[in-house]
Design a protein that fits this description.
With about 80 residues, this protein is an alpha+beta fold. Helices cover about 60% and strands about 15% of the residues. The chain has helices at about 20-30, 35-45, 50-70; strands spanning about 1-5, 10-15. It has a two-stranded antiparallel sheet.
């Protein structure tokens, strides 16, 4: 899915698969920011292309959530 947005005052188009857009929107909501604001934040810290940076950001967030879930697991008492 291609979306047009303004990043740092410049219009650009970004193509991502639907699940990535959905995850980015969920992350933005959890952080209390707009999708555009989150994308701008990711854009400031990227090294490669924007689409790749967005995918890698989503992957990193999922890895953090997975790690947090694993630390929340308590052993069963026998």
């Amino acid at each position: 899915i291609k979306r047009s947005m303004t990043i740092h005052g410049h219009r650009t188009s970004v193509s991502l698969e639907r699940p990535f857009w959905e995850m980015l929107q969920d992350i933005a909501i959890r952080r209390g920011q707009s999708l555009a604001s989150l994308v701008q934040q990711i854009d400031r810290n990227r090294a490669g292309g924007l689409s790749s940076a967005l995918r890698l950001f989503v992957l990193a967030e999922l890895k953090k959530e997975t790690a947090a879930d694993k630390t929340d697991i308590k052993p069963l008492d026998h």
